[in-house]
Automatic annotation (TrEMBL):
This is Interleukin-9. Keywords: Signal. GO terms for molecular function: cytokine activity; interleukin-9 receptor binding. Residues 1-20 form the signal peptide. It comes from the Eukaryota. InterPro entries: IL-9 (IPR020447). GO terms for cellular component: extracellular space.
């Protein structure tokens, strides 16, 4: 193996490690803030109560991406406004989960949660999660 081949391999490894940390944080924060401004849904979400409130999973640490995919899927299916923005978020989460881009948010591909929240609580969870990464 010559020096140019070794440098190529090292450069490729460097690119892959940088790409593995690519969580497209800024776009997700921007889209989430937009949805929070648009959302007027602040109804209480109680798992035991029957209500018209949309209840979405509030992820346990390490399972955020799977829950974000599940929650945005649910939002798309239930005709919540701003479908184009929700679809972009959903696709971003699917890509990050599928390509294992945000390892700290995807220790598994199953959504694990102890509580559910309304749309605003769910969006705030997304926002806080990605703002923490962005720091």
């Amino acid at each position: 193996m010559n020096a140019s081949m070794l440098s190529y391999i090292l450069f490729s490894c460097l690119l892959l490690s940088v790409q593995a940390q690519n969580c497209t944080v800024r776009d997700i924060i921007r889209y989430t803030k937009y949805l929070l401004e648009e959302s007027s849904v602040s109804c209480p979400c109680r798992e035991t109560a029957v209500s018209s409130c949309t209840c979405l999973p509030i992820a346990e640490p390490g399972h955020e991406l799977a829950c974000f995919v599940e929650g945005t899927d649910h939002m798309l299916k239930n005709n919540i406004s701003s479908k184009a923005v929700i679809a972009r978020l959903n696709l971003s989460f699917q890509i990050q989960l599928g390509r294992n881009l945000c390892k700290s948010l995807a220790r598994g591909d199953q959504c694990q949660y102890k509580t559910k929240g309304n749309v605003k609580e769910f969006l705030n969870k997304i926002l806080r999660t990605y703002q923490t990464i962005h720091k």
